[in-house]
Structures are given as C-alpha cells and as structure tokens.
C-alpha cells in the first residue's frame, strides 16, 4: 500500500450531550445488569478523516511522541507462539525490552502490562458461536490509556516503597504495539499527533469499569485540526512506540490512538496484535 494518506472513519465522543453533572462518565467492560446502561456517553463515527503515512511524515518521537522501530524476530515469532503466556514472558518481552531501549535510548524498561487482541470475524458485532468471542477486540474509539491521576495511582501500585527512587529519575510511560502477522491491512492502529490536540477542549475523562477495578482514561472529542497517522503495511518485525506520559513534559506528548477500518484498501486475515505498556527510564 504505497499511498501517503487514506480517508477513513474515526470514532469520537459526541460533543454537547446533556449529562447528569453528578454522574461521572463511565463505560462497563462486562455485561451490565438488566436495565443498567453499559455507558453514559455516546461514541459517534466521524467520516472523511484523512489519515497520513507515518513512515513519510517526518514526525519524531521527541517532538510528537510516536516512533517506528524494529524487533528481532529472526528466532521465530509465529502468531501461535503468542498463545503461550510463558513464551511471551520468556521470549517476546525480553526482545521487546532490547528494542525499546535501543530505539528510545532508554537505560531500562519496566513492563507492567500486556494484552493480546484477536479480531472476531463479525467485529464490531459479536457472535456467541465464534471461537474467540471472549478475546479482546480492537479498540475503535480515540483514547489515551491514562489520565495523570490514573498514572499516579499506578506508580504507587507498581513501585510501592521504591516509588521515591523511581520518581527521582527521568521516565516515560509508553505503549508498544505490534501485529502478530504482517503486513497489517486489517484494522491497523491510528495515532493522533498530540501537537494537534487541544487538551482543554478535546479530552474527556472516563472511568473504564472492570469487575474488580476502574481505570480513568481520556476519550477524545473531534476537532477538525486533528492530524492522524498510521503505519501502512506494518510488518510483524516492526513495533509502534507511542508516549502516554513524560516525567518532565507531563502528558503534552501523550498520543491518542484507536483502530480503524481500511475499507476497500483492507485485506488479510482478522488482525491479531499484542500491546505492551511499560515505564522507560533514562
């Protein structure tokens, strides 16, 4: 796919909704009780969004919070390998650690979370008879994985008594995304240049509620000034690294992101991918 841009649909939070000021926006990540709303805000598709080629964009990680790097998969990283959690911990994550340190110039990386996503053939609908009905699906609404407040609680949770020593170093919170097979032409990831985001008007705090925990994230309102990018034909030897927080710059370079449908330009088997969340220390 050689084009430098494509027109597609991005899903945003609907502006101007009447909401109960005493009820925080939320979305439930489990089946809601009968009669209880799954979420109390609306996500709407915005069509005709121009999504540019990140490869030829001239954007940099230092200035725009996103980068393309390579990972050594010469030892073999078949999609089926990722079904083995032990293999991920033993083989993939150490290789990813080396790639991220090399790409960002980081001294160390502490991985705190990873997730596989396997698109169901019927996605965005779900058929109960599909083999991977319980698997995580591509995330279709533009979002940032954490608010600053959420990250503060994560630091306490992950580092405990070592928090003060950790906070004395320059660090970033990053997300690293890779398709399990390439070239990826099925619901690739799109990245929003944070320099085109108005944080006071475009970001919307939401609680993502799971059975045992709630995480505060930013969903995103549409703004015609937004500039979107993606990695055409991303290979399984390529990783996308994007910023969520910087200890010196805060969330000024935090990259909103989401999956999107390539439409007629899409092809291939339903996307499978792995995303890793980590602290990078400098």
Automatic annotation (TrEMBL):
Which GO terms fall under molecular function for this chain's record?
oxidoreductase activity
Top-level taxon in the UniProt lineage: Eukaryota
Name the InterPro entries for this protein: AsaB-like
Alphabetized NCBIfam families for the sequence: CmcJ_NvfI_EfuI (NF041278)
Family statement: Belongs to the asaB hydroxylase/desaturase family.
Instruction: Provide the protein name.
Output: Methyltransferase
Q: Which organism is it from?
A: Thyridium curvatum
């Amino acid at each position: 796919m050689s084009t430098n841009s494509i027109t597609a649909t991005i899903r945003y939070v609907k502006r101007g909704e009447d909401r109960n000021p005493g009820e925080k926006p939320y979305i439930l990540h489990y089946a809601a009780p009968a009669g209880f709303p799954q979420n109390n805000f609306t996500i709407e598709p915005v069509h005709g969004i121009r999504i540019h080629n990140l490869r030829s964009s001239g954007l940099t990680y230092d200035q725009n919070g996103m980068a393309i790097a390579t990972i050594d998969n010469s030892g073999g990283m078949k999609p089926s390998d990722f079904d083995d959690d032990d293999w991920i911990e033993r083989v993939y994550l150490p290789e990813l650690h080396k790639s991220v340190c090399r790409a960002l110039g980081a001294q160390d990386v502490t991985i705190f979370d990873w997730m596989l996503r396997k698109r169901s053939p019927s996605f965005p609908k779900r058929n109960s008879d599909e083999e991977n009905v319980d698997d995580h699906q591509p995330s279709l609404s533009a979002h940032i994985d954490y608010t600053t407040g959420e990250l503060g609680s994560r630091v306490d949770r992950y580092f405990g008594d070592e928090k003060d020593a950790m906070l004395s170093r320059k660090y970033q919170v990053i997300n690293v995304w890779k398709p399990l097979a390439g070239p990826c032409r099925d619901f690739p990831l799109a990245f929003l240049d944070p320099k085109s985001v108005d944080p006071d008007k475009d970001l919307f705090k939401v609680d993502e509620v799971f059975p045992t925990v709630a995480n505060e994230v930013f969903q995103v309102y549409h703004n015609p000034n937004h500039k979107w990018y993606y990695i055409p034909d991303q290979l399984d030897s390529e990783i996308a690294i994007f910023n969520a927080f910087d200890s010196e710059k805060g969330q000024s370079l935090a990259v909103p992101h989401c999956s999107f449908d390539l439409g007629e330009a899409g092809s291939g088997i339903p996307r499978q991918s792995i995303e890793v969340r980590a602290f990078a220390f400098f």
